[in-house]
# Entry
Amino acid sequence: MLRLGQHFIRACGWADRTASLFCGDAGGRVAGWKAGVKKDFASTDREFALNLKIQFHTPDELFLAEPACTKFEHEFDPRTVPTNLPLYTPTSQPLTLEMPELIIMVGWPGKSHPAGRLGCVWNQRL
# Structure
């Protein structure tokens, strides 16, 4: 389970996950899941609930009594990941460097933009 999830459960004092639920609008529903409705902007709320091992409902389901969506953009379910796999592969390679390294990034933010900090580091490091 996620450490954030563990903290969340401890802070809220939850003891019974079967009686708990998480409601959020980032359910990962695809475009057209309902006539004339756009896709969800993300699936993070549904994935967070999966990681917490609690029920997930969208506001449409919970407050408008609409049927649950069955079409999602990402079908990943963290409960299906085998727990007996190595942390990384190949296991023959060290996970850390022999000498520590510090990367200072200055510039425009952005994950995929070529001029973004991460884009520049990615391009220079590889």
Notes: Residues 3-80 form a domain with the Rossmann fold fold (CATH 3.40.50.1000). Helices lie at 3-12, 44-52, 59-64, 117-125. The chain has two domains: 3-80, 97-126.
